[in-house]
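Researcher: Here's a chain I'd like modeled. Treat it as a single chain, no partners, no ligands.
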Amino acid sequence: MRKNIVAGNWKMNTTVQEGVALAKEVNDALAAGKNNCDVVICVPFTHLVPVAGAIDSKVLGLGAENCAQYDKGAYTGEVSASMVASTGAGYVILGHSERRQYYGENNDTLKAKTRLALDNGLTPIFCVGEVLEERENGSYNDVVQSQVEALFDLAAEDFSKIIVAYEPVWAIGTGKTATAEQAQDMHAHIRSVIAGKYGNEIADNTSILYGGSCKPSNARELFAKPDVDGGLIGGAALKADSFMGIVEAFN
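Model: Modeled as a single isolated chain. C-alpha coordinates:
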Protein backbone atom coordinates (compact mmCIF):
# COMPACT_ATOMS: atom_id res chain seq x y z
CA MET A 1 0.00 0.00 0.00
CA ARG A 2 1.59 3.27 -1.07
CA LYS A 3 1.98 6.10 1.39
CA ASN A 4 0.36 9.50 1.35
CA ILE A 5 3.11 12.10 1.82
CA VAL A 6 3.27 15.86 2.25
CA ALA A 7 6.80 17.20 1.84
CA GLY A 8 7.86 20.81 2.30
CA ASN A 9 10.58 22.31 0.12
CA TRP A 10 11.85 25.45 1.83
CA LYS A 11 14.15 26.40 -1.06
CA MET A 12 16.59 29.24 -0.25
CA ASN A 13 14.54 30.69 2.59
CA THR A 14 14.89 31.22 6.36
CA THR A 15 17.96 31.72 8.52
CA VAL A 16 19.01 28.79 10.69
CA GLN A 17 17.24 30.34 13.68
CA GLU A 18 14.04 30.96 11.71
CA GLY A 19 14.19 27.46 10.27
CA VAL A 20 14.58 25.78 13.65
CA ALA A 21 11.62 27.77 14.97
CA LEU A 22 9.46 26.80 11.96
CA ALA A 23 10.46 23.14 12.22
CA LYS A 24 9.56 23.07 15.91
CA GLU A 25 6.19 24.67 15.17
CA VAL A 26 5.39 22.07 12.50
CA ASN A 27 6.64 19.23 14.73
CA ASP A 28 4.48 20.38 17.65
CA ALA A 29 1.40 20.74 15.45
CA LEU A 30 1.88 17.23 14.08
CA ALA A 31 2.47 15.76 17.54
CA ALA A 32 -0.77 17.31 18.78
CA GLY A 33 -3.00 15.79 16.11
CA LYS A 34 -3.77 12.61 14.20
CA ASN A 35 -2.31 12.70 10.72
CA ASN A 36 -3.18 10.42 7.84
CA CYS A 37 0.01 11.01 5.89
CA ASP A 38 3.76 11.04 6.32
CA VAL A 39 5.17 14.56 6.65
CA VAL A 40 8.67 15.65 5.61
CA ILE A 41 10.46 19.00 5.54
CA CYS A 42 13.36 19.48 3.12
CA VAL A 43 15.56 22.31 4.31
CA PRO A 44 18.78 24.12 3.30
CA PHE A 45 22.03 22.28 4.04
CA THR A 46 22.92 24.74 6.81
CA HIS A 47 19.73 23.82 8.67
CA LEU A 48 19.95 20.02 8.62
CA VAL A 49 21.87 19.41 11.86
CA PRO A 50 20.06 21.95 14.07
CA VAL A 51 16.64 20.99 12.69
CA ALA A 52 17.40 17.29 13.22
CA GLY A 53 18.08 18.09 16.85
CA ALA A 54 14.88 20.09 17.22
CA ILE A 55 12.30 17.62 15.86
CA ASP A 56 11.06 14.13 16.65
CA SER A 57 11.98 11.91 13.70
CA LYS A 58 9.01 9.66 14.49
CA VAL A 59 6.70 12.63 13.89
CA LEU A 60 8.43 14.61 11.15
CA GLY A 61 10.81 13.44 8.46
CA LEU A 62 13.81 15.53 7.41
CA GLY A 63 15.40 15.92 4.01
CA ALA A 64 17.86 17.98 1.99
CA GLU A 65 16.98 19.93 -1.14
CA ASN A 66 19.82 18.47 -3.21
CA CYS A 67 23.06 16.49 -3.05
CA ALA A 68 26.17 16.21 -5.20
CA GLN A 69 26.66 13.71 -8.02
CA TYR A 70 30.04 12.75 -6.53
CA ASP A 71 30.76 10.67 -3.45
CA LYS A 72 33.59 12.87 -2.10
CA GLY A 73 36.67 14.76 -3.21
CA ALA A 74 37.82 18.12 -4.53
CA TYR A 75 34.41 19.63 -5.25
CA THR A 76 34.47 22.88 -3.33
CA GLY A 77 31.08 23.95 -2.07
CA GLU A 78 29.31 20.66 -2.80
CA VAL A 79 27.53 18.45 -0.25
CA SER A 80 27.51 14.69 -0.79
CA ALA A 81 24.75 12.19 -0.11
CA SER A 82 26.81 10.65 2.69
CA MET A 83 27.16 14.09 4.31
CA VAL A 84 23.39 14.58 4.09
CA ALA A 85 22.75 11.16 5.61
CA SER A 86 25.22 11.86 8.44
CA THR A 87 23.04 14.75 9.65
CA GLY A 88 20.13 12.44 10.40
CA ALA A 89 18.19 13.36 7.26
CA GLY A 90 16.33 10.55 5.53
CA TYR A 91 15.22 12.21 2.28
CA VAL A 92 16.66 14.29 -0.55
CA ILE A 93 14.94 16.21 -3.35
CA LEU A 94 16.55 15.50 -6.71
CA GLY A 95 15.90 17.00 -10.14
CA HIS A 96 13.79 19.93 -9.00
CA SER A 97 12.92 22.10 -11.99
CA GLU A 98 14.97 24.96 -10.54
CA ARG A 99 18.05 22.70 -10.44
CA ARG A 100 17.39 21.58 -14.01
CA GLN A 101 16.76 25.14 -15.24
CA TYR A 102 19.35 27.21 -13.35
CA TYR A 103 22.13 24.67 -12.82
CA GLY A 104 21.89 22.58 -15.96
CA GLU A 105 21.14 19.29 -14.26
CA ASN A 106 20.39 16.59 -16.82
CA ASN A 107 19.44 12.94 -16.81
CA ASP A 108 23.04 11.73 -16.44
CA THR A 109 23.67 14.05 -13.47
CA LEU A 110 20.46 12.92 -11.83
CA LYS A 111 21.16 9.22 -12.37
CA ALA A 112 24.44 9.66 -10.48
CA LYS A 113 22.80 11.64 -7.67
CA THR A 114 20.00 9.10 -7.30
CA ARG A 115 22.44 6.19 -7.15
CA LEU A 116 24.49 7.88 -4.42
CA ALA A 117 21.38 8.86 -2.47
CA LEU A 118 20.15 5.27 -2.47
CA ASP A 119 23.60 3.91 -1.59
CA ASN A 120 23.60 6.16 1.47
CA GLY A 121 20.14 5.15 2.67
CA LEU A 122 18.35 8.30 1.56
CA THR A 123 14.90 8.28 -0.03
CA PRO A 124 14.99 10.37 -3.21
CA ILE A 125 12.04 12.64 -3.98
CA PHE A 126 12.62 12.68 -7.73
CA CYS A 127 11.05 15.60 -9.58
CA VAL A 128 9.72 15.54 -13.12
CA GLY A 129 7.63 18.03 -15.07
CA GLU A 130 7.13 20.08 -18.20
CA VAL A 131 7.55 23.79 -18.96
CA LEU A 132 4.75 25.93 -20.38
CA GLU A 133 5.90 25.54 -24.00
CA GLU A 134 5.82 21.75 -23.66
CA ARG A 135 2.37 21.88 -22.07
CA GLU A 136 1.08 24.08 -24.89
CA ASN A 137 2.65 22.13 -27.78
CA GLY A 138 1.30 18.83 -26.47
CA SER A 139 4.66 17.14 -25.84
CA TYR A 140 4.25 17.05 -22.04
CA ASN A 141 3.54 13.32 -21.72
CA ASP A 142 6.66 12.43 -23.72
CA VAL A 143 8.81 14.94 -21.81
CA VAL A 144 7.79 13.60 -18.41
CA GLN A 145 8.09 10.00 -19.58
CA SER A 146 11.70 10.59 -20.66
CA GLN A 147 12.50 12.14 -17.26
CA VAL A 148 11.06 9.13 -15.41
CA GLU A 149 12.88 6.73 -17.74
CA ALA A 150 16.18 8.33 -16.71
CA LEU A 151 15.93 6.12 -13.61
CA PHE A 152 15.15 2.91 -15.49
CA ASP A 153 18.73 1.67 -15.09
CA LEU A 154 17.81 1.01 -11.46
CA ALA A 155 16.96 -2.47 -10.30
CA ALA A 156 13.32 -2.91 -9.34
CA GLU A 157 14.22 -3.09 -5.65
CA ASP A 158 15.97 0.27 -5.85
CA PHE A 159 13.28 1.95 -7.92
CA SER A 160 10.72 0.86 -5.35
CA LYS A 161 12.42 3.19 -2.84
CA ILE A 162 11.84 6.30 -5.00
CA ILE A 163 9.16 8.93 -4.40
CA VAL A 164 8.18 10.73 -7.61
CA ALA A 165 7.05 14.36 -7.58
CA TYR A 166 5.27 15.78 -10.63
CA GLU A 167 5.70 19.52 -10.90
CA PRO A 168 4.19 21.32 -13.87
CA VAL A 169 6.94 23.93 -14.13
CA TRP A 170 4.48 26.49 -15.44
CA ALA A 171 2.59 26.26 -12.12
CA ILE A 172 5.51 26.75 -9.70
CA GLY A 173 5.45 30.08 -7.93
CA THR A 174 3.18 31.53 -10.62
CA GLY A 175 -0.09 31.16 -8.78
CA LYS A 176 -1.26 28.94 -11.65
CA THR A 177 -2.20 25.42 -10.69
CA ALA A 178 -2.83 22.41 -12.84
CA THR A 179 -6.45 21.44 -12.46
CA ALA A 180 -7.06 18.36 -10.35
CA GLU A 181 -7.94 16.57 -13.61
CA GLN A 182 -4.68 17.62 -15.29
CA ALA A 183 -2.73 16.45 -12.24
CA GLN A 184 -4.57 13.13 -12.16
CA ASP A 185 -4.01 12.54 -15.88
CA MET A 186 -0.25 13.08 -15.55
CA HIS A 187 0.06 11.05 -12.35
CA ALA A 188 -1.79 8.17 -14.01
CA HIS A 189 0.53 8.48 -17.02
CA ILE A 190 3.61 8.36 -14.78
CA ARG A 191 2.26 5.30 -13.00
CA SER A 192 1.62 3.56 -16.32
CA VAL A 193 5.18 4.33 -17.48
CA ILE A 194 6.54 2.79 -14.26
CA ALA A 195 4.26 -0.22 -14.66
CA GLY A 196 5.53 -0.76 -18.19
CA LYS A 197 9.08 -1.12 -16.87
CA TYR A 198 8.72 -2.57 -13.37
CA GLY A 199 5.22 -4.08 -13.31
CA ASN A 200 1.96 -3.14 -11.64
CA GLU A 201 2.97 -3.96 -8.07
CA ILE A 202 5.87 -1.49 -7.95
CA ALA A 203 3.87 1.10 -9.89
CA ASP A 204 0.92 0.78 -7.53
CA ASN A 205 3.22 1.18 -4.51
CA THR A 206 5.06 4.26 -5.82
CA SER A 207 3.97 7.49 -4.14
CA ILE A 208 3.53 10.26 -6.73
CA LEU A 209 3.30 13.77 -5.26
CA TYR A 210 1.95 16.91 -6.90
CA GLY A 211 4.13 20.02 -6.75
CA GLY A 212 2.93 23.25 -8.22
CA SER A 213 1.21 25.97 -6.19
CA CYS A 214 -0.50 23.46 -3.91
CA LYS A 215 -2.12 25.25 -0.98
CA PRO A 216 -4.77 24.59 1.68
CA SER A 217 -7.53 25.83 -0.63
CA ASN A 218 -6.88 23.26 -3.38
CA ALA A 219 -5.09 20.41 -1.58
CA ARG A 220 -8.23 18.44 -0.73
CA GLU A 221 -9.44 18.41 -4.33
CA LEU A 222 -6.00 17.39 -5.62
CA PHE A 223 -5.45 14.70 -3.00
CA ALA A 224 -8.88 13.19 -3.68
CA LYS A 225 -7.67 12.03 -7.09
CA PRO A 226 -6.75 8.32 -7.11
CA ASP A 227 -3.18 8.75 -8.39
CA VAL A 228 -2.25 11.90 -6.42
CA ASP A 229 -0.57 10.68 -3.24
CA GLY A 230 0.32 14.01 -1.66
CA GLY A 231 2.26 17.15 -2.38
CA LEU A 232 5.71 18.68 -2.65
CA ILE A 233 5.00 22.08 -1.17
CA GLY A 234 7.00 25.25 -1.78
CA GLY A 235 5.74 28.63 -0.60
CA ALA A 236 2.98 27.23 1.60
CA ALA A 237 5.59 25.22 3.55
CA LEU A 238 7.17 28.38 4.94
CA LYS A 239 4.35 28.99 7.41
CA ALA A 240 3.26 26.30 9.82
CA ASP A 241 -0.44 27.08 9.56
CA SER A 242 -0.60 26.90 5.75
CA PHE A 243 1.58 23.78 5.68
CA MET A 244 -0.59 22.09 8.29
CA GLY A 245 -3.67 23.11 6.29
CA ILE A 246 -2.32 20.96 3.46
CA VAL A 247 -1.42 18.06 5.77
CA GLU A 248 -4.96 18.16 7.15
CA ALA A 249 -6.41 17.76 3.67
CA PHE A 250 -5.82 14.02 4.19
CA ASN A 251 -7.91 13.95 7.40
